[in-house]
Design brief:
33% of the residues lie in helices and 27% in strands. By secondary structure, it is an alpha+beta fold. The strands form 2 sheets. It has an 8-stranded antiparallel sheet with strand order 1-8-7-6-2-3-4-5, with helices on one face. It has a 7-stranded mixed sheet with strand order 11-10-9-12-13-15-14, with helices on both faces. The longest helix is centred in the C-terminal third of the chain and has 22 residues. The N terminus and C terminus are likely disordered.
């Protein structure tokens, strides 16, 4: 490589283009515009002085983003991989220089004043990276492995590729696993007992079980609870089909379920209204080490909220509803802090996909008595200011028995 050769431009455009396409280009830069550019209708702005084309990830697969630079502006357009050949023909007729970065090779093409192409080829010093608008992301469940729950859910094809229409669901699943991974990275135990309240059809339950056992090597006992017998029967059939021996499902009410085994993780995803409160209460009573909760349908406080001092938050229906929902989860988070949990409220999925996008993630331990008392005081002030009586307060603070020196439940 590295040999510069002179080739007649008129007969070699297509040969060079074919060579570049065969080398899987990830970045192309056209520069040094020629006189013919002004006469080419394909250029929507005749003042373009430089063009950069990058390989990107799009929802429908890989494609290219074109950046056209003038002295004062930049224009963007996305194209498919199939369009690249035609685009290259257009720009090679407009510019005198082309620099190409491929996975294993770099190619420089220059046109002399006499119309000859000077081509230089060399091995790539660094493998070029394909880029997307947000950079290509590494997902915990990578493509290429036909994971049974994801195939049955329609997220993966049978050969383990993401179905384009399900890419948002694929990202949501990986986001959930990232949140679990983050709290387990310092967890001292390899055996996990997990309770999933209100599991429903359980696609996340199955995916989490797969990830923890197959990808991370944990020994997992996982119980899914739901109120619908048909759902429970179907989920148990599916667990048997996948041979997930540690995963089973039971008919059970969040408010009445009991277990004699220590609980490592309690999960409650989209349990409606006060069902979330009962799930959190049970998790606290069992001294579960980790709580992952995505609340839904926070109606209770919307019926209670009253205030004269902050009337602007309650006189408009939509503002009142959103305020009540945010207060509900803020109170839940603070009560978990009071009970000795390090608590975060995190964005679970992008709000453009669902307004129910807050996850309460709580890890037991290392909360000082002062912080616990402060968390309780914040809840009490909020409830007093807006005349609130949340279910979780009633469950965790019966008869105001929360004024001990240690800050409450331990």
């Amino acid at each position: 490589m590295g040999d510069g050769t002179s080739e007649n431009a008129a007969g070699q455009y297509h040969i060079i283009i074919e060579e570049i396409l065969a080398s899987e280009p990830v970045k192309l830069v056209f520069s040094n515009p020629g006189k013919r550019q002004e006469q080419t209708a394909a250029t929507d702005n005749p003042n373009v002085i430089r063009v950069v084309i990058r390989l990107i990830e799009m929802k429908q697969g890989q494609g290219y983003q074109i950046e056209k630079f003038t002295k004062t502006q930049v224009f963007h357009i996305n194209i498919t991989k199939a369009d690249l050949e035609n685009v290259m023909e257009i720009f090679m007729a407009q510019f005198r220089q082309l620099n190409v970065w491929c996975e294993t090779m770099e190619i420089d093409v220059k046109q002399s004043k006499k119309g000859k192409l000077l081509v230089n080829r060399r091995r790539a010093v660094h493998a070029a990276e394909a880029v997307s608008h947000n950079k290509k992301k590494h997902y915990l469940l990578a493509e290429g492995t036909p994971i049974p729950p994801l195939v049955d859910l329609g997220v993966f094809t049978k050969d383990g590729r993401v179905v384009h229409a399900m890419y948002d669901k694929y990202k949501q699943i990986n986001r959930f696993l990232e949140m679990v991974e983050d709290v387990l990275k310092d967890y001292p135990h390899q055996k996990l007992n997990i309770i999933d309240f209100g599991c429903g059809k359980s696609y996340l339950t199955f995916v989490l079980y797969y990830y923890l056992t197959e990808e991370k090597g944990y020994q997992v006992t996982m119980t899914g609870l739901d109120l619908k017998q048909g759902v429970i029967d179907k989920c148990n059939e599916t667990a048997n089909k996948y041979q997930y021996e540690g995963l089973h499902f039971e008919l059970g009410d969040i408010n009445g379920y009991h277990t004699e085994q220590p609980v490592d993780i309690v999960i409650t995803l989209h349990a409606c209204d006060t069902a979330t409160d009962y799930a959190l209460y049970n998790a606290v009573q069992w001294k579960a080490n980790i709580i992952l909760s995505v609340p839904c349908c926070q109606h209770e406080l919307n019926q209670q909220i009253r205030t004269e001092k902050f009337g602007a938050l309650t006189k408009y229906g939509i503002i009142k509803e959103r305020t009540a929902a945010l207060m509900t989860d803020a109170i839940r988070g603070s009560l978990l802090e009071y009970c000795g949990y390090r608590t975060q409220l995190l964005e679970f999925i992008d709000i453009s996909h669902s307004p129910k996008n807050i996850m309460i993630r709580a890890v037991r331990g290392n909360v000082s008595p002062e912080k616990r008392r402060q968390a309780l005081a914040e809840v009490e002030r909020l409830c007093e200011a807006f005349s609130l009586a949340p279910t979780l307060c009633r469950l965790l603070l019966p008869q105001n028995g929360h004024d001990s020196d240690d800050g409450g439940i331990s």
